[in-house]
């Protein structure tokens, strides 16, 4: 038995993995990773894999990044964690200062939680509670977009709209108002993405007009619906939405958990529409892919609505045991320092141009309906019929064939259904991007056969 095999066997005897039909592992081996270095992961048999999806969209500056490693080691020697109610520490304070500093204008308060879903729960509860503290307890609903994804806990799942994750649990979920989305994949021929997103906004405006009285907030993923098959839309939608939320007295929650920290070409996706949301949820890249941490940034106006004498019972009593964990905060600080010290956003523009070049040839492929890109995310939509865009039946699991082929060639791609995408760490080189594209191209040929 190889070292991989023996560890995989022990794993399968006791573990249960996320987002996995465990029976699949009767036929597909689990891959035990021994170490990581930059964009590369190495397993226990010595095989290497280029992490082209940033280990589920979290890694920004590579595995075992020297700067983040050093910061974490220093933190470990002074403080690993302390209760965050009644107490504070240097890394939590510095991180909040930095986040407020780089965030869109007006977001001046930072509340920590420990993963993306928890941040979404916090934002939903804060918005609802804000209106309640303002004497508007009739506001109890949320507006969400078709094809959106905001996490897996019950509140986050409720405001999401990906059927695969949501349908089973529907009886457990709060009711939301779901508005048809601005996803440009389905625009009319000849229509620009901006025109389509603008046209679709009319449906959002109608929903706001009808329901504003009972609605706390609209929650959206700015520019890219990542878990919803990397569907993209135009920034104009965000500008219109900001204005409408103001007009109808409804909060805007921007879930930048996947798109924040340079992923879309700007530090935050909201910048491309020059808007500030009322709540911004951050996680994933926040710690450079090192540790679970999330933050909800909000406005002074929201903060003040909770600030009063204890007896008035207006405080936000939400907490998590590991709120403001010192190691996680320090990893996040080290990550923000890299953005501060190096021209990452400018470098990403060059990398994004290389990603565009590397995927150019996919556009003409008879089973590719669209190659779309926003900054450091490029997605290739496989279809059965290019002209009608008829998708492959999901049961055929064509994307999975790309996954297995790519692994055999030393590249970690993990298509979402039949959408192959690249979402690499920002330290990837041109040659490595070319390798990823070549392997994806070969995997595509294999996946569309018969
Ligand atoms: C991943 C993700 C979440 C959930 O974050 P977790 O840390 O996995 O709970 C929420 N929103 C978006 C947009 C995400 O991509």
Question: How many structural domains does the protein architecture include?
Answer: 2
Strand content: 15-25%
Question: Count of helical segments?
Answer: 14
The top level CATH class name of the largest domain: Alpha Beta
Largest sheet: 7 strands, mixed
Write down the overall mean pLDDT: 98
Bound molecules: pyridoxal-5'-phosphate
Which strand order spans the largest sheet, edge to edge or round the barrel? 4-12-11-10-7-5-6
Rg, alpha carbons: 22 Å
Regarding quaternary structure, what we see is single chain
Proportion in helices = 25-40%
Poorly predicted tracts of residues: none
Number of strands: 16
Which sequence of SSEs, written as H and E, runs from N to C? Answer: HEEEHHHEHEHHEHEEEHEEEHHHEEHEEH
CATH architecture of the largest domain: 3-Layer(aba) Sandwich
Category from helices, strands and their pairing: alpha/beta
Distance between the termini: 34 Å
């Amino acid at each position: 038995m190889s070292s991989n095999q023996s560890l995989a066997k022990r794993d399968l005897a006791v573990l249960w993995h996320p987002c996995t039909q465990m029976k699949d592992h009767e036929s597909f081996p689990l891959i035990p990773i021994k170490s990581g270095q930059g964009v590369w992961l190495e397993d226990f048999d010595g095989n290497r894999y280029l992490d082209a999806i940033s280990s589920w969209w979290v890694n920004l500056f590579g595995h075992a990044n020297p700067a983040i490693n050093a910061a974490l080691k220093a933190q470990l020697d002074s403080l690993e964690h302390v209760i965050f109610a009644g107490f504070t520490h240097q890394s939590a304070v510095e991180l909040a200062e930095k986040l407020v500093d780089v965030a869109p204008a007006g977001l001046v308060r930072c509340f920590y939680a420990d993963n993306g879903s928890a941040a979404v729960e916090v934002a939903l509860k804060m918005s609802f509670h804000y209106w309640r503290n303002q004497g508007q307890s009739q506001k109890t609903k949320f507006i969400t977009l078709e094809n959106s994804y905001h996490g897996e806990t019950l509140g986050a799942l409720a405001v999401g709209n990906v059927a695969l994750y949501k349908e089973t649990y529907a009886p457990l979920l709060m009711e939301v108002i779901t508005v048809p989305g601005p996803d440009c994949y389905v625009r009319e021929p000849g229509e620009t993405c901006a025109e389509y997103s603008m046209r679709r906004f009319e449906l959002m405006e109608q929903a706001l007009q009808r329901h504003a009285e009972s609605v706390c907030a609209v929650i959206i993923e700015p520019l890219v619906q990542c878990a919803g098959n990397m569907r993209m839309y135009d920034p104009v939608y965000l500008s219109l939405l900001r204005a409408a939320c103001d007009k109808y007295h409804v909060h805007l929650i921007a879930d930048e958990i996947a798109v924040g920290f340079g992923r879309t070409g700007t530090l935050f996706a909201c910048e491309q529409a020059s808007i500030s949301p009322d709540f911004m949820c951050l996680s994933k890249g926040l710690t450079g892919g090192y540790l679970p941490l999330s933050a909800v940034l909000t406005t002074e106006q929201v903060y003040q609505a909770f600030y009063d004498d204890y007896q008035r019972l207006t405080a936000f009593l939400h907490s998590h045991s590991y709120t403001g964990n010192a190691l996680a905060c320090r990893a996040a600080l080290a990550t923000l320092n890299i953005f501060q010290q190096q021209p990452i956003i400018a470098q990403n523009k060059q990398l994004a141009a290389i990603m565009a070049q590397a995927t150019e040839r996919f556009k003409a492929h008879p089973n590719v309906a669209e190659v779309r890109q926003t900054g450091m995310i490029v997605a290739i939509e496989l279809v059965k019929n290019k002209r009608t865009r008829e998708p492959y039946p999901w049961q055929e699991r064509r994307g999975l064939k790309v996954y297995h082929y790519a692994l055999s060639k030393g590249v970690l791609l993990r298509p979402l259904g039949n959408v192959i995408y690249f979402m690499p760490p920002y330290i990837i080189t041109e040659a490595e991007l070319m390798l990823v594209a070549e392997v994806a191209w070969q995997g595509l040929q294999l996946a569309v056969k018969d």
